[in-house]
Design brief:
The longest helix is centred in the last third of the chain and has 27 residues. The protein is 62% helix and 15% strand. Helix 1 packs across helix 3 and helix 1 crosses helix 4. A hairpin with a 5-residue loop joins strand 2 and strand 3. The chain is globular and about 55 Å long. The chain is an alpha+beta fold.
Length: 110
Amino acid sequence: MAPIDRELLKGSLEVVLLALLERGPMYGYQIVKEVRALSDGVLDLKEGSLYPALHRLERQGLIEGFWQARDDGADRRYYRLTAQGMQAARDKRAEWRRFTAAIEGVLRYA
């Protein structure tokens, strides 16, 4: 099976991240693993796209990062939705459903 065009993921990364963070705080590598697992390995996030997207969402006030100590004493940066981010996640999810339904409608009859 041919790999998914990276531009498709790039255009949907914001809604993917917001949806994942609705489940609770996560750190970067955890997000990568979750996306891979939930997409049955089809989506493979790279650090070069993940962290710029997280920082963009943070600048927009949709998520916030915080440090948490691990059992081994090292700190790990987690990300969680803000109140504004929770609303944005709901809005983006609804927008995504309208968009994919429209695309499916076109593909079905094209």
